[in-house]
Every structure is written in structure tokens, then in C-alpha cells.
Amino acid sequence: MEQEKIWDSIVIGGGAAGLVASIAVASAGCEALVLECEESPGKKLLITGGGHCNLAHIKATEKDFNSGNLRAVRNILSAFPVRKVKEFFRQIDVDLVRDADGKIFPGTRRAATVVRALVSECRRLGVGIETSRPAERIKRNNGVFTISGSGFVRKARTLIVATGGLSYPHTGSRGDGYSFAESFGHSVVPVLPSLVPLTTRDPDWQKLAGVSIDVRLSLVDGGKVIAGSKGPLLFTHQGFSGPAAMDLSGIWLRMKEQKNISIIADFIPGAGNEELLSRFASGSERQPTARVKKILAVFLPERFCEIFLKKSGIDPDKQVAHCSKKEREKILAALRRFSLPVCGVLGYDKAEVTSGGVALDELDPRTLGSKIVPGLFFAGEVLDVDGRIGGFNLHWAWASGYVTGQAAAARLKSGSVF
Ligand SMILES: Cc1cc2nc3c(=O)[nH]c(=O)nc-3n(C[C@H](O)[C@H](O)[C@H](O)COP(=O)(O)OP(=O)(O)OC[C@H]3O[C@@H](n4cnc5c(N)ncnc54)[C@H](O)[C@@H]3O)c2cc1C
């Protein structure tokens, strides 16, 4: 009977990490079964990168990630560096392209291409994929894992938990992996939403919804910069979004309780102070009656200039010729160091990833295999690893998926499953 079969390896979760893990198991000549709770695998993958799927970055190191164990992150990335990501996708017929920032996408710019290729590679290798199968309970007796849920029981000699985090719950992220880990005695670093928009209560900034500018943001603790980001900042009805704001969200949320932190914006990271002051000087010579906001609008959107000047205590409609040297310097200083009035973040339904998760210290840093339960592995976002925007989170999913799949197969082949 099908229920009695003992698979070499079961992967819980048919997302990015789980599909690659099952491919790695099967490529090594072992049998793999994927249990996916949604009606189809890869639901989250389909919405990555706005549907374009930024699947890796040309340069990824552990410094692009947040984790309690960056040494383990480095090990896994060096076992499956970007060269191997490219090779892997070439082998499953997915052409890749990179943009000017080093982000890597499928040539079609369609996430569906990636999901289709992964699923057909699973089929080619004979990986079983069972959908609408939410795993609810796991037990381990005599070296065999029993995974059960409503109306099904499946058994395997090795188990890879690739259930993802809690973000975008409608894609299947339910946080089950954390309770599975805890039930086996593993620690879970407290989780929180990350890569998520920041909120503000300030109605002036909310009025700028839709405006986007390139900025440099610094997370500052009592004058000391502890993290930074650079890129577009998008004003929204709720606050601040775009890669620059989202990249700092997880660390802001984690630190705000203990420290007196603020997010400081440099609104003109591309221009030097001298350049700005001389633009001001020449603007006031050429158009002495022009308003300050118009002169500033050479660099930044006029709607933004109006609010920014108001917030900095300068009348936006003041004629530039009437602006004193001190006022010009005040504007410049505010453009360079403006404290954003952040009061919180949106929830998991708007967070691209979950920060925190299964602690790496209780896993073998080379294989992500449990040091507590032989034959148990964890891969992907369920782990205490989250990356910045730019393809790093998917790179982590592929790398950790591949490494765990290979390690599970190696364990089976060595016969050490008990
Ligand atoms: C809107 C959005 C855009 C993003 N864009 C990018 C991007 O462009 N580049 C990038 O690098 N990262 C991006 N990310 C992050 C990236 O998608 C995730 O980090 C990555 O998908 C994590 O892979 P995973 O396999 O660990 O988890 P998931 O992809 O979430 O897969 C986990 C799977 O497990 C299944 N599952 C959960 N519990 C159970 C259970 N009990 N039983 C059975 N199945 C279960 C889920 O249904 C799911 O299919 C984005 C995320 C979001 C939300």
C-alpha cells in the first residue's frame, strides 16, 4: 500500500527551497516526495520580483544577510555560489539575464518560467509532488519519520523542512516549520516581519503618496550608524516604502525596543555640498525672485521640496534671493540628515520575508542537518536567515535547498540513517 512506503526523503514545502532540495535528493539517485499544503507548488515564487523573479545577485556574501550565525551562512553560500545558481538554471533550461545593478532574472522576466522549470525537473527525476497536503504532525521512531495530516500518513528516512516563514500568508506561509522544529527540541529565534514598508503618523509625509526619490538611509543609535541602505524611497499613504526603507525595516523593528534608534535620510546622496551651494548661488543670481522650492526642484520632485522645506522650518515660497547664508546651510544640513518620523511597520501580509527562525547553532553548519535529530534538515526562509532586497533571499533558498538535499542523499547512501 502507498501509505506503507518508506521514502528516502520527504520535503515539507514545495517552495523555492523545497523544490530544489527534492531535485538534489533525486539527482543523487534517491527517492524524494514533496508535500505541499497549497493546491500548486511555488505560489510565492510566482509573485517574486513583481512577477519577474529576481532569483539571485551577481555578488552575494554573508554580509548581505541577517542571521545569528553568519559563518554558517557563508559556508552554505560558498557551497552553492552564484556560479552554481547560474549552472543549475542553465541545466533546467532557464536562461538568465542580469540588470545594471547586478540583479539576476530569468531571461523571460517571468517567475512562471522558473516555477515551470523546477516542477518539470522534479517530474523528470521522478520526484513525487503531492499538493493540498498540509503536514500537521511529525514523529520519529526507529530512524523513520512519520508525517501526517488530515487523511494522509507518509514515511521517510530523512526529512527536509522547507516550509518558509510567515510572510504573505495566502501563498502558504503558515509558520508550521517553527513548531516542527520546536517539537524536536530546536530553538527558534523570535520572528518578525522584514523587508516591509515603514509607517508614519505624520500626515504631511502621507500626502506625498506616490512620490519616489533616490536616498541613502542610515539606522542610527545615539550618533552611531549601525546599518544603511541606498536606493528608491517611495512615499505611501501609510509611510515609507521602496527598497531603501524596506531594507532597514527588520533591523529597525528588532532594535527599536532596546535602543534609541532613528532612521536618518540623505535626500541627495548623489550630489556634493559644494555643488548644491553653488546651484543655490547661481539660481539666486539668475532668478532672484524664484521661490526656494523651485530652486530645490532641480534636484528633487517639487511636491517633496514643499513638504521638506516646511518640515525644516523654511518657508517654501520664500524668494531665493532673500534666503540668508545660514538658511541655505540649514537647508543643506536638513537634506543630508533628516530624521524620518517612523512609528512602526506593516504586518506579515506586506512583508517580503520573515526575520528570525530556526537557530543555525543547533545545525551542522556545512549541511544544515540537525545536531539533535539525525536525518532532519532545514532549508530556506524557515531558518534564522534573511537577506536584503536584490535576489539574496532566493539565492539563500536555492543554496540551502541544494545543500540539504545533497546532504540527505549522502546520509542515505552512507547508510547512517539511524
Ligand atoms: C511579494 C514578494 C516578493 C519577493 N520577491 C523576491 C525577489 O524578487 N527575490 C528574492 O530573492 N526574494 C524575494 N522574495 C522572498 C522569497 O520569495 C522567499 O524568501 C523565498 O520564497 C523563500 O523560499 P522558501 O522555499 O523557504 O519558502 P516559500 O517559498 O514560502 O515556500 C514554502 C512552501 O511551504 C509550504 N508549506 C508551509 N507549511 C506547510 C505544511 N505544513 N505542509 C506542507 N506545505 C507547507 C508553503 O505553501 C510554501 O509553498 C519575495 C517575497 C515576497 C512575499
How does the SSE layout of this entry go?
Layout: E1 6-12, H1 16-27, E2 32-35, H2 43-46, E3 56-57, E4 65-67, H3 70-79, H4 82-91, E5 96-98, E6 103-106, H5 111-124, E7 128-130, E8 137-141, E9 144-149, E10 152-161, H6 176-183, E11 188-194, E12 198-199, H7 203-206, E13 212-221, E14 224-235, E15 239-241, H8 242-255, E16 261-266, H9 273-286, H10 292-296, H11 302-311, H12 325-336, E17 338-340, E18 344-345, E19 353-358, E20 376-378, E21 385-387, H13 392-414
Parallel strand pairs: 1-2, 1-10, 2-7, 10-20
Antiparallel strand pairs: 3-6, 4-21, 5-6, 8-9, 9-10, 11-19, 12-15, 12-18, 13-14, 13-16, 14-15, 16-17
Helix pairs in contact: 1-5, 1-13, 3-13
Bound molecules: flavin-adenine dinucleotide.
In short:
The protein has helices at 16-27, 43-46, 70-79, 82-91, 111-124, 176-183, 203-206, 242-255, 273-286, 292-296, 302-311, 325-336, 392-414, and strands spanning 6-12, 32-35, 56-57, 65-67, 96-98, 103-106, 128-130, 137-141, 144-149, 152-161, 188-194, 198-199, 212-221, 224-235, 239-241, 261-266, 338-340, 344-345, 353-358, 376-378, 385-387.
Report the strand count.
21
Query: Which geometry do the CA atoms define?
Result: elongated
Radius of gyration: 25 Å
The CATH topology label of the largest domain is FAD/NAD(P)-binding domain
* Biggest sheet architecture: 7 strands, mixed
If classified by CATH, what would the architecture of the largest domain be? 3-Layer(bba) Sandwich
Proportion in β-strands: 15-25%
Number of distinct helices: 13
Which stretches of 5+ consecutive residues score pLDDT under 50? none
Number of domains: 2
Bound molecules: flavin-adenine dinucleotide
Percent of residues in helices:
25-40%
CATH class (first level) name of the largest domain: Alpha Beta
CA-CA gap between termini: 24 Å
Q: What do the pLDDT scores average to?
A: 94
Q: Structural class given helices, strands, pairing?
A: alpha+beta
CATH superfamily (homologous) name of the largest domain: FAD/NAD(P)-binding domain
